[in-house]
Amino acid sequence: MKKATVWQYILAILLIFVFLTPVFYVISSSFKPINELFSANPTFFPRNFTFENFQNALSRGNFLVYIGNSFIVAISSTILAVVINTMSGYALAKFRFKGDTFVMILILSTIMLPLEVIMVPIFSVLRTFGMYNSLLALIIPAAATPTGIFLMRQYLLTIPDEVIQSARIDGASEWKIFTKIILPNAKPAIATLAIFSFMWRWNDYIWPLIAISTRSKYTLQLAIANFSGEFGSDYSSIIAMSAISMIPMLIVFIIFQKQFVQGTVQTGMKG
Questions:
Q1: Nearest C-alpha neighbor of 203 from the set 248, 158, 162, 161
Q2: How do residues 159-175 score in pLDDT, each as one tens digit?
Q3: Distance CA 105, CA 111 (A)
Q4: How far does Cα 230 stand from its chain's mean position?
Q5: Exposure of 86 by Cβ count < 10 A (0-12 exposed, 13-18 middle, 19+ buried)?
Q6: Which CATH fold would you assign to the domain 62-266?
Q7: How many other β-carbons are positioned within 10 Å of the β-carbon of residue 72?
Q8: What pLDDT is attached to residue 244?
Q9: Residue 75's pLDDT band (cuts 50, 70, 90)
Q10: CA–CA gap between residue 80 and residue 102 (Å, rounded)
Q11: What is the per-residue burial (b if ≥16 Cβ within 10 Å, else e) of 146-164?
Q12: Structural domain boundaries of the chain?
């Protein structure tokens, strides 16, 4: 093994340690009783292992409802984002029309706009259509994102135009080309987009705070933030629910990690 490779592995291990230590500490702390959390001599691993924190949070905080709401929002918005962004990326990558470059520049320019700038217009539109204080208010605005469109466009540019032209010569419709050629070849980019979309919606806090006012429609992140005030800062239960909130993202990434790495590498191959 080359010396440079050894140092690369050492650096990678150190980075893994730095990034994962806080995650493992939260998970470990979720199994500690309250007196250990505020001990003068804290330990990384619990001295008295307990599931009481999870039991208290699930029984007192109605967190099963909030977890269900988060899954509905994250899964629904991810499916919509994959469908809409893939179609948009395909159109911008493989169809030439007047003003296509301007449209792409316009879409990319919106990436520079923070959510705070467009909160009021989005809120007004949702209220006009009667979607305020509903899960649709969290699902619909995330259906199309400039980042998702750009990601899919960049990846679909790597698919040779000759493949699509051959399919058209053979009499294939645009829908058949999209479903039989584009989608199977775009699996890495779709997996990357799905991971990002699920992560954004699952961890979102600011927009649910604005769009949802009824407690029964809270998402998990919003419920965790409000759990502190209602029950007098029950930090043991908050940490337990924070640990649970990490699990879906870890599962999604473990399942799609191969496609995620392949997709993020190939999206920058061709401009």
A1: 248
A2: 888 888 888 888 888 88
A3: 10
A4: 28
A5: buried
A6: MetI-like fold (1.10.3720)
A7: 15
A8: 84
A9: very high
A10: 25
A11: bbbbbbbbbbbbebeeeeb
A12: 1-50, 62-266
